[in-house]
Structure formats: C-alpha cells, structure tokens
Specification:
This protein is an alpha/beta fold. Helix content is 46%, strand content 16%. The structure holds guanosine-5'-diphosphate.
C-alpha cells in the first residue's frame, strides 16, 4: 500500500533532483532517493556495482546513448541523508548534462522532487529532527560566518540535545507529581515539597539560560544595524567605503548627494554588521534630500549602533545631541579626517581617517563590543535560539512552568490540575524539536520510582 507524507506526496516514490545550483560549473550532483533508487540507477550504468558509500567511475547511458562520464555513490538505507536508499551521481556541470541525466532517471520511474523533499524525508525517517532540518536551510542561506557557525552547531544537534535535556528534567518533575497523585493521602510521602521546588527552579534556570541566547541568535541571523550619521561632507560615505574595503558608495564633495541609505554587510568578526550610509542630518529645504533624511531617521530608530560623525569637537557635540534624540542605539562619536587635523586625543571621541585608515580597527572593535553589550558576548560552541519559533516555544514553556510553580506552591489546587501546566510545557518542547513520544512519561514513572518499596 502506498504511503503519503504530510502534504499528500507519495513517500514510496523514488525522487530525483539536481542538488547543486543550475549553471556552468565543473560538476553537478544529481540525487536519487527512494525504494527503487538502486534499480533505477542500475538501468543507466553497465555493470552496476553498488558497494556502499564507495564512488564508482561509470559511463551513464540513456538506452544506447552515452550521456556523461559520472561518479556514482550508493548509500543503502538507513545510512543515507534521507534514511532511504540514495544514489548520488556527480555529473559534469552546465545546463544540459545534469538535466539530461535527471530526465533519463525520470523515464525509468523516478519523480522530480519538490523543494525540500529530501530533507522532509530525512525528518520523516528520523534522520534529522525539525531543528536540524531548519539548520540545513540556515546553513545554505547563511550570509555570514557567524550564521554559518550557529547553523552548524544546530545541525550537529547541540540545540536539540539541550532541549532534550530540558525535556528530561520536565519529565522527571512530572513523574514526581504523578507519584504525589498516586499517593495523595500519604502526609509524609517520600516526595518532599522541597524536591519539587528545587526541580522546578532548576528547570526554570535552564530555560532562562537558553532564552538568554535569543537576542544573540537574532543578531547573528539579522546582523547588527550600524548607521553612519552626521552632517553632509564630513566623510560618511568615505568611511562606509573604507570599512567595507571596497568602493560601493558614490563619494562626492557636493554636500547632500547621498540621497538615500546604502547598506552593505561586513562579515568576519563576531557579528555580521549591516553598515548603513545615510543622507546628511542637516536641515534642508530640498524635497528629495529631505526624503533621504527621513530614511536616515528611520534607520536611526532601528539601529543597534550609530557612528556619529563630525569634523570638529563642537560639531560632534551637536551631532551627538541630534542623534541621541532619535535613537536608543549605542552612539560612537567619531572625529573624522584625522589625517588632515591632528585631533587632540579625546576621551569622548575616536579619531578616524578614511584616507589612511587610522582608527578603523579600533572602531570595528568598539562596534563589536557595543553589540556584545546589547546581546551578551557570543560564546562559541553554545547553541543559539536563532528563530522566533524557538523563542516562542520556550517562552510558552516558561510561562507554563511558572504557572505550575505558582499553583503548586499555593497548595490549594490538586496535583493533577497543576501537572497540566507541565504537560503543556513538555508538548511545547516536543513540538519545537519535532519529536513526540507519549510513552516516555510512563517509562519514567516506573523507572525512577520503586513504588513497592
Ligand atoms: P559625506 O557627505 O559625509 O558622505 O562625505 P564624503 O565621504 O562624500 O566626503 C566628503 C569629502 O571629504 C570628499 O572630498 C572626501 O574625499 C573627503 N574625505 C572623506 N574622508 C576623508 C578623510 O578621512 N581624509 C581626508 N583628507 N578627506 C576625506
């Protein structure tokens, strides 16, 4: 009998797709997955040998016609990405060769895979949990080293393991309560209130430490917005270019030519930085320029860090005041064009030159420290909550556990009712990871307690 997945697609189908991006390149990878993967692939190769996980150099045929010389690797179930029989065929790249190989495999009975279907099957077959499947997407979409690192930790299962540990703590707590439910009359039962209290507090602490990573996770995903602001002609665009290391903004001597905001990402440090070059902040009657200033004000409202730029100390004070009224961000005051004037070393401002690069490394490290302060320093190897979904699930779990704690310590509500909050919290975690196993709680009750004692 045929089985359908959650979207009604046949999971007994053998699916095929080009797994690499379309276009010119040395090689392309065609992936085939499903119960008939080996038999379909074997029709296109003379002397099919499918020694597991060993690459074989073969000619690939469509009938009598040779399509390419390829490398074929067979991954028998369950030791494959999807958990099914998988064949990976490295063909030569380009537009025609990989598509002709896919077309040939489809003639032999494979179906074109839909977007994400290989990973979906990996989840259905228990090879990846939901968090790991998300991490595959995040790794492919990563636009910074920080995101790459966070996604890789998640793919390794670090976040899943932390959540499983948390779930285990909750199941333990639920088991304590279940014991209380079974023996309500025992005044002096073996489960002391202190034990429940301690277990609850420990779970809340674990949850809080995970939730504390959410701001850093969001910053890694979105990048910190760093706005360069100040009056026209002080060297904002030049600074933007100097920080980027290549010329992207149009640099000009005419005041007010940067009409709109320009944005570019600086990567490589602890945080991805979204550097924004804004229009000058001065008052103007020019309509278009004013539009540009509105953009910069909007950016100021969402910025994490604002670089306040001016050429003299008194202008800088005025600029900082103007900016402070428009943003909650950390403001770093900069005295610009330090190659022209030797600014006396000031405690309150950093002297920089776009021309000769002086002060820029210090500026970058000050920006990173400002972001550290806002999200907590990034501890490598610690998994982060990178999606709203993660944060919402954990916040729900936290609320439910707090509610359990409140009701339980009040002592007026039956344990069975209080325990409902724990169940909801556990379900939230299970939905987050994508594993639901109702037998678990029963196993716990009987394994951690010796009821007959
Ligand atoms: P913006 O209007 O604030 O974006 O200023 P620009 O970046 O367009 O620079 C205005 C003028 O100042 C241009 O002629 C730049 O070449 C010059 N300039 C910018 N930064 C520096 C610097 O660090 N040193 C020197 N000597 N000139 C600079």
């Amino acid at each position: 009998m045929s089985r359908l997945d959650d979207r009604g697609l046949l999971i007994d189908d053998t699916i095929v797709a080009i797994a690499s991006p379309v276009g010119r390149g040395a090689i392309a990878v065609v992936r085939l997955s499903g119960p008939r993967a080996f038999s379909i692939a074997s029709r296109h190769v003379r002397n099919w040998q499918h020694q597991p996980r060993v690459a074989h150099l073969s000619d690939f045929f469509d009938g009598e016609q040779r399509l390419d010389e390829v490398l074929i690797t067979a991954f028998p179930a369950p030791h494959s990405y999807t958990g099914e029989d998988v064949v990976e065929i490295s063909t030569h790249g380009g537009y025609v060769v990989p598509s002709s190989v896919v077309a040939a495999l489809m003639t032999s009975g494979a179906r074109q895979a839909t977007a994400g279907e290989f990973t979906r099957r990996a989840v259905l077959n228990g090879k990846l949990d939901l968090l790991q499947a998300e991490a595959v997407g995040d790794l492919i979409d990563a636009n910074s080293r920080a995101m790459q690192e966070a996604a890789l930790l998640q793919l390794d299962g670090r976040l899943s393991r932390r959540l499983s540990a948390l779930r285990a703590e909750l199941l333990e707590l639920e088991a304590l309560i279940a014991y209380e439910v079974d023996f309500p009359e025992e005044d002096d039962g073996p489960i002391s209130r202190d034990r429940v209290e301690a277990a609850t507090k420990a779970v809340l602490k674990s949850l809080d430490s995970l939730l504390a990573t959410a701001p850093a996770g969001e910053m890694v995903r979105e990048g910190a917005i760093v706005v360069i602001a100040g009056p026209p002609n002080v060297g904002k665009s030049s600074l933007f270019n100097a920080l980027l290391g290549k010329s992207r903004a149009i640099v000009t001597e005419i005041a007010g030519t940067t009409r709109d905001a320009l944005e570019a990402v600086i990567d490589g440090g602890r945080w991805p930085l979204r550097l924004v070059d804004t229009a000058g902040l001065r008052q103007t009657t020019d309509r278009i320029e004013r539009l540009g200033i509105e953009v910069s004000e909007r950016y100021l409202g969402v910025a994490e860090v604002v670089l306040a730029c001016a050429e003299t100390s008194s202008d800088l004070d005025a600029t900082v005041t103007l900016i402070r009224a428009r943003t909650q961000a950390t403001i770093i005051p900069l005295l610009m064009k330090s190659d022209l004037v030797s600014h006396r070393n000031q405690m309150s401002a950093l002297a920089v030159s776009a021309e000769n690069g002086s002060g820029l490394p210090r500026l970058l490290s000050q920006i990173e420290s400002a972001v550290d302060e806002q999200c907590g320093p990034r501890v490598p190897e610690i998994p982060l909550l990178t999606r709203t979904r993660h944060k919402q699930a954990l916040e729900l779990a936290r609320e439910e556990i707090s509610e359990f704690h409140r009701v339980w310590s009040g002592g007026n509500v039956p344990a069975t009712i209080a325990a409902v909050h724990l169940r909801t919290a556990i379900t939230a975690l299970e939905e987050l990871v994508g594993t639901v196993d109702v037998e678990d709680i029963l196993d716990r009750v009987f394994s951690s307690f010796c009821v007959g004692k």
